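User: quick one, sequence for these tokens?
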């Protein structure tokens, strides 16, 4: 009985090791594929941005052309952001990025982050309000949290109507 149990455990361990190795290879393939696709997209994106800039500099005084070049510039910037995010995810997944966590005042951090969006919000008739205890601190990587919070605020502004408000709240709980 003990021999059969040992054999069964050994078979399970071998199967688990094979499964882990297979998952590792799949993850590595996916990471390399994302990085390669992202890198390959940079060249045509740069060309499109250059063509768009040339069209903008032509000053054809055509409202339709002007409108479309502004729209295409915005969409090209969006594509560039998506490509950069894919590359960052691939690097993060590969473990080539180390988070530099430190203790920061959360309210000050959020106030500084919001400052970058106030002008846009005001121009669009939107508001951003922060409700955060001034004394809250938290351990985080400033660069990565800045990117995450900025993406949330940007997406919120993109998908809300004029007259609406983003409210950012933070509070201390027994858990965190």
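Assistant:
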């Amino acid at each position: 009985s003990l021999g059969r149990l040992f054999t069964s455990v050994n078979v399970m361990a071998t199967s688990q090791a094979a499964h882990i190795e297979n998952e590792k290879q799949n993850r590595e393939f996916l990471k390399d594929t994302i990085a390669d696709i992202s890198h390959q997209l940079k060249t045509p994106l740069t060309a499109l941005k250059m063509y768009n800039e040339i069209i903008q500099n032509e000053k054809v005084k055509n409202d339709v052309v002007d409108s479309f070049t502004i729209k295409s510039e915005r969409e090209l910037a969006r594509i560039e952001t998506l490509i950069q995010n894919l590359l960052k995810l691939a690097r993060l997944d590969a473990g080539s990025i180390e988070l530099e966590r430190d203790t920061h005042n959360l309210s000050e951090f959020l106030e500084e982050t919001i400052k970058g969006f106030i002008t846009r919000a005001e121009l669009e008739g939107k508001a951003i309000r922060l409700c955060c205890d001034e004394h809250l601190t938290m351990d985080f990587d400033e660069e990565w949290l800045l990117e995450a919070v900025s993406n949330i605020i940007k997406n919120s502004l993109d998908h809300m109507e004029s007259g609406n408000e983003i409210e950012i709240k933070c509070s201390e709980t027994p858990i965190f």
